[in-house]
Amino acid sequence: METLTVFILCGGKSTRMQSEKGLVLFQNKPFIEHIIQAILPLTEKIKLITATREYDYLPYEKIQDIVTDKGPLGGIYTALTASETEFNLILSCDIPLISTELLSELISKHTDEAGVSIFASESKVHPLVGIYSKKMLPVIKEAIEAEELKMMDLIAKIPHQIINIDKSENFHLSNINSIDELNDLNINLS
C-alpha cells in the first residue's frame, strides 16, 4: 500500500462522557495521546478532525468538519476530502487501548480493491477503526445528503473487507463513551 494518512475523529457531542472524549484521562494521559502513541511507529502523517481548540497543544494539523452534525460519517467525509492519499486510516478518539499491532494487522491485510477495510468479531463490528479509500467520497457524500448516517448502512453499500478478529481483541477496540465505561476499564486493568 502506498503512503497512508491517519485521521483521528475528535468530534462528537460526548453527551454521555460530558467532556471532550479524546482528552479524557486514562492512566494519567488523554485518550488521544494513547492513540497517537499506537500510530507513531507506523506513520507520522496524522491529522485531527476537530472544531475545538482544546487539541491545539498537539503538533498535528486540525481540520474542521465540512458538514456539521452528521456524526462519524461527516468526520470521514471531511477526512477523505482533505486527504492527499488514496488510503486513509480513520480512527475514533475514544479507543485508548488500540495497539500498533492491531493497526499493523489492519494495514497489512487491507486489499486495494476494498473501499473500506474494518475489523469485526462474531459479536461486534468496528467501523471507526478502518482504512477508507478516497474513492468512496461520492458514496459518502450521497449518504450524507440523504441523511443516511448509519455507518453500517454505508459499509453495506460499498466494496468492503471485514478482517475477522478474536472476540478477546474487541477489548482493544472498545469505545469508551461514558464515565461508567471508563471506570469499568480502570477496574478491569487494575
Q: What is the compact description of this entry?
A:
This protein has 190 residues and is of the alpha/beta class. The chain is built from 6 helices and 9 strands, in the order βββαββαβαββααβα. The chain is globular and about 45 Å long.
List the main descriptive attributes of the protein structure presented here.
190 residues; alpha/beta; 7-stranded mixed β-sheet; two-stranded antiparallel sheet; 31% helix; globular
In words, what does this structure look like?
By secondary structure, the protein is α/β, with parallel strands linked by helices. Helices cover about 30% and strands about 20% of the residues. The chain contains six helices and nine strands; from the N terminus they run E-E-E-H-E-E-H-E-H-E-E-H-H-E-H. Strands 5-4-1-6-8-7-9 form a seven-stranded mixed sheet, sandwiched between helices. Strands 2-3 form a two-stranded antiparallel ribbon. Helix 2 packs antiparallel against helix 4 (about 135-145). The mean pLDDT is about 90.
